[in-house]
Design brief:
Chains: A mainly alpha (263), B mainly alpha (263), C alpha/beta (336)
Helix content of chain C: 25-40%
CATH architecture of the largest domain in chain C: 3-Layer(aba) Sandwich
Structural class of chain B: mainly alpha
Largest sheet of chain C: 6 strands, mixed
Order of helices and strands of chain B: HHHHHHHHHHHH
CATH topology of the largest domain in chain C: Rossmann fold
CATH class of the largest domain in chain C: Alpha Beta
Oligomer: heterotrimer
Radius of gyration of chain B: 19 Å
Helix content of chain B: over 70%
Number of strands of chain C: 13
Largest sheet of chain B: none
Number of domains of chain C: 2
Strand content of chain B: under 5%
Number of helices of chain C: 11
Chain lengths: 263, 263, 336
């Protein structure tokens, strides 16, 4: 299948030795960070339970909830950096003839990276969450989270794509990335499940893809019935479509701007 | 060694650094603004959580705001005025110390004063705003606030110098140094009561989040001569260690025992 | 009493313990620190020479010859392992700061100008670095700017300057504190012909005018010939040749380069000691080792093939001479 071939080649050929080393050390760093955050939060939730949190959510499942959301978040490779570099270097100009190919190949190579990160980070998530809580959620819950989490992480990767594409207009896209990421933390319920936020934030979140990316897939772990698998699948499909359209549109705009101004 | 000339140099270096940072006006403003927004957005998590539990092991929302504020301001100060710290590893690795070594001024001061990150100004601004909004400090305490932030920044910068100086001995460990740097920031941002005995010990020694976040925040919450004394002593101690380690590293560099390409 | 030498090297040596760096993880690298898997490579081997004040010396050698290492020891960046070195009467590794006030450096591959700012801002900062009195410094900036014809460039951000314009500013930056000695590492690399010519002329003139001693490394023989009067050639860290550049060509290689314009399109001269550099379009270039085949014999051989319309004879290019130098040293194993 062409898709699989693109995945294979894009992922492996793009990663030269130096990049591979950088990716690997970034991955190890993420794993360490992951372990630290789970440790800090297991302590946090225990402290919150002492203080009497007025919501029926016990510390153990909240730690597993965080493990799930962080797994999804950390697995998505920060491809906006690579895209910014490609645009800065002028690589894009050579690929202008096929607007689809640049966007698709960058996304495909991102998926390739995701395919490597997700298992390692998933294992880290499982082991650390178990070590800190001494408990595991039911297997069915974990088996539901896994595929949806991967899909969500893939969508997140696609979303990083459009941020990278902003490099056509901006000097530095990192500020946009940080803000986007923090909005995702809050509106996606990264550290705190959405129902614990004030109502107006929950309402605002409904208009964004963020709950679909983090809160919804992770909710299967704590079983709060936030969303059914079918509904989530639909949401993911819709947001994927929107993202694809937006990315292609941005790229086409940028490409036409380039051909008019001569790069 | 003429101190007045060295001070004049440091002042001129700072002025030039600042000029360079604002040279691209649009990029500067955007990075500063977005970083501030980034910090405010992240804090919504704490605002929502503390809205539910009111106190967490003795810490109120105001306490956490002060903690956040001090750390953000300290990080911002370091990264905007002495941004070269963050790049020290790459700087050493690329052999850029050579040019500095042929000039009659302190190599360390020169190296850290060569760069500035506009985002740091956003951190600094957001930090100050957090402290003001916490309503835990009054106007007469402003000198104390400045001192606390300065001390925190000194410890933070000193740690950066130590971490990145590892490059002198271990070569391409820049990513590890960066992970340590990020870990320091992460630990500094969470209230210290969350951490257990051994960890607390580490956080006041090898990864001094205690000096970067906890102690300055405690001082602003309830000023005490003892705490101020400890913080000042800590800042001086870490600074001395950093200077010493960099100096040793420089001597090793001069003996050429790093892996060098020569010709 | 004769003036002290600007640079004095005596049996200077430097070797590196090159580690076989184990690739990959931090753990492997930490193990590297403790294990002794090293190999000692001699970068500079008992090098001795001296340079008088005001001299302009080209420091030549192939890649890996030890040029940069020697230069770094002279500038105080590296500590020697053996021998002595004095620059302007000071020991570089021990009196680095003192020496720094009196030397300037230009690294072709590295810039000391702040990228986002106009050169003037870097110049002013350097005034503080070298502790120059502000008014005097401003006058110096103006003087050098006019000598180097910078004009409005001084106030243009460096990122908007061409490479040639930037190099001129780098030179000014290195001369602001009126150093007595200037070290230059590939100063004309990447420049176009006219920019190179301008830089070379400026270097020569400034050095003459202010009695600045120059030590220049370059792979460009034009740099050597236009700027320097003396050449020191090293290879494998050892001295191969030391003397005037004019003598380098004359004494070392008895060769001529001959260009023949002929009636026949191509010319074939197969004689020992004759190398055909190019042949075609009625023009042939030959390199002749005169000790092997005299010039007359070559011309005779050519005339036997075709009529010769025109002929040009010149000394072999410096490149060839240097290449021959390295080659001889390889085969005989001893410096001349």
């Amino acid at each position: 299948m062409i898709g699989a071939r693109i995945l294979k080649y894009a992922a492996f050929s793009r990663i030269s030795a130096a990049e591979a080393r950088r990716e690997r050390s970034e991955l190890y760093g993420r794993m360490v960070f992951f372990a630290v955050i789970l440790g800090v939060f297991s302590s946090l939730w225990r402290a919150v339970a002492e203080a009497g949190m007025p919501v029926a959510a016990d510390p153990k499942s909240l730690v597993w909830y965080l493990a799930a959301t962080e797994w999804i978040l950390l697995s998505a490779p920060p491809i906006h950096i690579d895209i910014q570099e490609a645009i800065r270097r002028g690589d894009v100009v050579y690929r202008l003839g096929h607007p689809a190919s640049f966007v698709v190949s960058e996304f495909a190579s991102g998926l390739g990276l995701l395919a490597v990160r997700a298992p390692f980070l998933g294992l880290t998530a499982f082991l650390c969450a178990f070590a800190f809580t001494g408990w595991t959620p039911p297997v069915s819950a974990l088996l539901t989270v896994a595929p949806f989490g991967l899909a969500a992480s893939g969508l997140m990767t696609a979303l990083y794509l459009w941020i990278g594409l902003l490099a056509f207009w901006l000097q530095e896209v990192s500020p946009v990335f940080w803000l986007w990421q923090k909005l995702m933390f809050v509106l996606g319920g990264l550290m705190l499940p959405l129902e614990l936020y004030p109502a107006f934030i929950q309402r605002a979140a409904a208009f964004t893809p963020f709950p679909t990316l983090l809160a919804a897939p992770a909710s299967f772990v704590i079983g709060n019935g936030l969303v059914t698998p079918g509904a989530l699948a639909r949401q993911l499909a819709v947001w994927s479509g929107v993202t694809a359209l937006v990315s292609f549109a941005i790229f086409r705009r940028a490409a036409s701007m380039l051909t008019v101004n001569g790069g | 060694m003429n101190t007045s000339h060295d001070l004049a140099f440091a002042r001129a270096l700072l002025a030039t650094n600042m000029k360079s940072a604002v040279a691209l006006r649009g990029a500067f403003l955007m990075q500063a603004l977005f970083m501030a927004l980034n910090n405010f957005t992240f804090f919504v998590f704490w605002w929502a959580l503390m809205g539910r539990v009111t106190t967490l092991r003795g810490w109120s929302l105001g306490d956490i705001q002060v903690l956040f504020g001090v750390v953000a301001a300290a990080v911002g100060l370091t990264v905007s005025l002495a941004g070269g710290v963050r790049h020290l590893g790459r700087f050493i690795d690329d052999g850029n110390l050579d040019t500095l070594l042929t000039q009659p001024k302190s190599v360390l001061v020169y190296a850290i004063g060569l760069r500035s990150h506009p985002a740091g100004f956003g951190d600094l601004l957001s930090g100050v705003i957090f402290i003001v909004v916490s309503r835990q400090v009054s106007w007469p305490q402003v000198p104390l606030v400045v001192a606390a932030i300065a001390a925190s920044a000194i410890v933070f910068a000193a740690c950066g110098i130590v971490f990145f100086s590892l490059v002198f001995w271990l070569g391409k460990v820049e990513s590890v140094a960066t992970q340590l740097w990020d870990l320091l920031i992460t630990f500094s941002l969470y209230p210290e009561p969350l951490f257990g005995g051994t960890l607390r010990f580490l956080l006041f020694t090898v990864l001094p989040a205690g000096f970067v976040g906890y102690l300055p925040a405690r001082i602003l919450h309830a000023p005490s001569m003892l705490n101020v004394g400890i913080l000042v002593a800590g800042a001086i101690a870490y600074l001395c260690v950093a200077v010493l380690i960099f100096d040793r590293g420089l001597r090793r560099y001069a003996s050429g025992s790093r892996f060098t390409t020569f010709g | 009493m004769p003036p002290a030498a600007a640079v004095e090297l005596n049996q200077l040596s430097k070797s590196f313990r090159v580690r076989r760096t184990r690739n990959g993880s931090v753990a492997a690298r930490v193990r590297d620190l403790f294990s002794r898997e090293t190999q000692t490579v001699s970068a500079v081997d008992r090098l001795s020479f001296s340079i008088e004040p005001g001299e302009r010396v080209a420091f030549i050698g192939p890649n890996g010859a030890g040029k940069s290492t020697t230069l770094k020891m002279l500038a105080g960046i590296l500590r020697p392992d053996g021998g002595e070195v004095r620059v302007l009467g000071l020991v570089p590794s021990r009196q680095r700061r003192q020496l720094a006030f009196q030397i300037g450096t230009v690294f072709g591959q590295r810039s000391q100008l702040w990228y986002q700012l106009p050169p003037r801002d870097t110049f002013e900062l350097l005034g503080r670095v070298y502790e120059i009195e502000p008014r005097q410094h401003r006058r110096r900036i103006d003087t050098l700017s006019s000598v180097f014809a910078l004009g409005a460039l001084v106030d243009t951000p460096v990122r908007q300057l061409s490479l040639g314009e930037r190099m001129r500013c780098e030179l000014v930056a290195s001369l602001l504190h009126s150093p007595r000695m200037l070290f230059l590492d590939e100063p004309t690399i990447g420049l176009d012909v006219s920019a190179k010519a301008m830089i070379r002329e400026l270097l020569w003139t400034e050095s003459e005018r202010e009695r600045v001693t120059l030590l220049l490394t370059s792979h460009d023989t034009g740099d050597m010939e236009r700027v320097c009067s003396r050449a020191i050639v090293i290879n494998h860290g050892r001295l191969l040749w030391d003397g005037p550049i004019s003598a380098l060509r004359r004494s070392y290689l008895k060769a001529k380069r001959v260009t023949l314009w002929s009636e026949a399109e191509r010319l074939d001269v197969a004689l020992p000691g004759v190398r055909v550099l190019s042949s075609g379009s009625y023009r042939t270039e030959l390199e002749i080792a005169l000790e092997i085949t005299p010039l007359g014999q070559v011309v005779d051989a050519a005339l036997r093939q075709t009529a010769i319309r025109d002929m040009a004879i010149e000394d072999a290019a410096l490149d060839e001479v240097i290449r021959a130098l390295y080659a001889t040293a390889e085969t005989t194993g001893t410096p001349s």
